[in-house]
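[Q] Does anyone have a clean C-alpha cell version of this?
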Amino acid sequence: MRIWKWVGLAGVVGAAVVGIAVGTSSVQRKRREFVDANPSELRVRLQERFREAQKRDTA
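[A] Here you go.
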C-alpha cells in the first residue's frame, strides 16, 4: 500500500513541475516580445492597448 502513496506523491510533484515550467516559458515569451520589438512598433502596440482599455472603462 505504501508504494501507491509514493506513486501518488510523485504524480503530484510531477504535475506541479510541469505547471511551473509551462508558466515560466509563457512569461519569458511575453517578455521577449517586448525586448525584441522595435521601439516604434512597441509604442504603437502600447497605444492600441491603452485605447482599448479606455474603451472598456467608459463602456
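[Q] Thanks! Anything notable?
[A] Residues 2-35 form the longest helix (34 residues).
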